[in-house]
């Protein structure tokens, strides 16, 4: 008799899981509380996948062997609780996909920097001639890649939500770029819960595996010291008496392992800023552990262009720079962005607040921000936080309006920065939509 999997949500991970599950002979039922796109429905019909939209019919799920929950659905919803009461195993898409591949997995998580680190790592492996795919929170879902192009290596960008429901998922190399308060609305506003979720990346690792972590992140370092993992722990960012570490010394990234020491010249790297150097350290260390030469690593990093919507230069108009940092959906990301500004800045901020504490931004806002443009349905928290330290503060209701106002306020040799610190779902489909609307509005000035 066929095993049955119920998939909650028909987004990227839901579609990918359906494709892989059909390929592996499962009976598949997809249920989405919202509407399903026409192209997705056609794909499901072609694969003979049963689906429903705008509802969840519990009676069609109670005989399932597994429930795959899309990362966007909280675990405390009534439906998920009801299914768990029936003792149906709840798994994430990365857990399901990992059961059908023998590939070497590189899992990259963290509050910030994981997209850039994953893209850097993928580019180095690809340039070294490895059979590799980039998946997870970026590009195609992991399940779809396993179904359609089962490569020898997968570089996976992984969110805390995807790690929440793993059982046996085990990356050969796990990377934690940093941990800062983010998505706390999904973790009962408890930072420790969120931290534990990220640390699940190492819970199934063995002594043959590696866990890389940012040693400049004090809370992460303290947490790593307390966990029980069999993996070889490899800190990056600071040397500090570690026999194994990756750090910066005289314009070089130095990678020190149990076996050897390698130095990679960082002169002429195109991505600036301390945070990008840390991303490069993590990616270089992954590549080194996979026996890729330092020449290939350096060449790849020299040609790395960066992630879209992450401190992405858009245009210069009347000597005013416009920068799209739409992917900055938390306070820590904005900290990096403001820190890298070298001119007076008109800052566009706002959206769906995820439990932000803006206090760490105060010194940078005082030093660098000329004006704040609020862009969100509810801007009260931002106004309360920054009004006492900002001369100019304007509320707007659309991207076009925000960009037009910023253009009027900014002067020659200044910068307009979209770095929202919030999720995008109040006015936009996602952070890409928000970033694309910003770029379009700038082009129309």
Helix tally?
A: 16
* Radius of gyration computed on alpha carbons: 22 Å
Assembly classification:
single chain
Number of domains: 3
Estimated helix fraction: 25-40%
CATH-derived topology of the largest domain? UDP-N-acetylmuramoyl-L-alanine:D-glutamate ligase
CATH architectural type of the largest domain = 3-Layer(aba) Sandwich
CATH class of the largest domain: Alpha Beta
Largest sheet: 6 strands, parallel
Structural category:
alpha/beta
Strand content: 15-25%
Report on this model:
The protein is built from 16 helices and 20 strands. By secondary structure, the protein is of the alpha/beta class. It has three domains: 4-91, 3-Layer(aba) Sandwich (Rossmann fold), CATH 3.40.50; 95-302, UDP-N-acetylmuramoyl-L-alanine:D-glutamate ligase (3-Layer(aba) Sandwich); 312-443, Protein-Tyrosine Phosphatase, Chain A. A hairpin with a 2-residue loop joins strand 12 and strand 13. The termini are far apart.
Could you list some keywords that capture this structure?
445 residues, alpha/beta, Rossmann fold, Protein-Tyrosine Phosphatase, Chain A, 16 helices, 20 strands, 34% helix
Layout of secondary structure:
Blueprint: E1 4-8, H1 12-23, E2 27-32, H2 38-47, E3 50-53, E4 66-69, H3 78-85, E5 90-91, H4 93-98, E6 104-109, H5 114-127, E7 132-136, H6 142-148, E8 153-157, H7 160-164, E9 173-176, H8 191-199, E10 210-214, H9 218-226, E11 232-236, E12 245-249, E13 252-256, E14 261-265, H10 274-289, H11 294-302, E15 312-317, E16 320-324, H12 331-339, E17 345-349, H13 362-368, E18 369-375, H14 380-386, E19 392-396, H15 399-409, E20 415-418, H16 431-443
Parallel strand pairs: 1-2, 1-4, 2-3, 4-5, 6-8, 6-9, 7-8, 9-10, 10-11, 16-20, 17-18, 17-20, 18-19
Antiparallel strand pairs: 12-13, 13-14, 15-16
Helix pairs in contact: 1-6, 5-10, 5-11, 10-11, 15-16
């Amino acid at each position: 008799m066929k095993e049955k999997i119920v998939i909650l949500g028909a987004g990227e991970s839901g579609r990918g899981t359906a494709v892989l599950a059909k390929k592996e002979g499962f009976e598949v039922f997809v249920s989405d509380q919202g509407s399903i796109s026409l192209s997705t429905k056609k794909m499901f019909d072609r694969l003979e996948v049963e689906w429903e939209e705008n509802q969840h019919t519990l009676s069609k799920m109670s005989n399932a062997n597994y429930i795959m929950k899309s990362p966007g659905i909280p675990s405390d919803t009534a439906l998920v609780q009801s299914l768990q009461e029936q003792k149906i195993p709840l798994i994430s898409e990365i857990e399901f996909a990992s059961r059908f591949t023998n590939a070497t997995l590189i899992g990259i998580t963290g509050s910030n920097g994981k997209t850039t680190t994953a893209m850097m790592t993928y580019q180095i492996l690809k340039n070294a001639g490895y059979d590799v795919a980039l998946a997870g929170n970026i590009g195609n879902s992991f399940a779809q890649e396993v179904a359609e192009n089962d490569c020898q290596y997968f570089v996976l960008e992984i969110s805390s939500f995807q790690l929440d429901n793993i059982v046996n998922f085990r990356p050969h190399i796990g990377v934690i770029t940093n941990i800062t308060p983010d998505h706390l609305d999904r973790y009962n506003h408890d930072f420790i819960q969120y931290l534990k979720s990220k640390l699940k990346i190492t819970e199934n690792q063995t002594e043959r595996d590696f866990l890389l972590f940012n040693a400049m992140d004090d809370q992460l370092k303290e947490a790593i010291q307390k966990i029980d993992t069999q993996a070889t722990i490899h800190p990056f960012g600071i040397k500090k008496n570690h026999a194994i570490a990756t750090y910066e010394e005289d314009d070089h990234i130095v990678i020190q392992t149990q076996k050897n020491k390698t130095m990679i010249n960082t002169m002429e790297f195109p991505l600036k800023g301390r945070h990008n150097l840390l991303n490069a350290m993590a990616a270089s260390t992954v590549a080194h552990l996979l026996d890729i030469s330092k020449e290939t690593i350096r060449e790849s990093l020299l040609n790395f262009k960066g992630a879209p919507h992450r401190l992405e230069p858009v245009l210069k108009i009347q000597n005013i720079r416009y920068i799209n940092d739409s992917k900055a959906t938390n306070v820590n990301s904005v900290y990096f962005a403001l820190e890298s500004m070298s001119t007076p800045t008109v800052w566009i901020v706002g959206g769906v607040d995820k439990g932000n504490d803006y206090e760490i931004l105060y010194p940078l806002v005082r030093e660098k921000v000329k004006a704040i443009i609020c862009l969100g349905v509810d801007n009260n928290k931002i106004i309360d936080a920054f009004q006492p330290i900002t001369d100019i503060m304007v509320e707007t209701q659309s991207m076009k309006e925000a960009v037009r106002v910023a253009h009027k306020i900014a002067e020659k040799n200044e910068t307009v920065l979209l770095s929202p610190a919030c999720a995008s779902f109040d006015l936009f489909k996602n952070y890409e939509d928000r970033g694309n609307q910003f770029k379009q509005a700038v082009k129309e000035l």
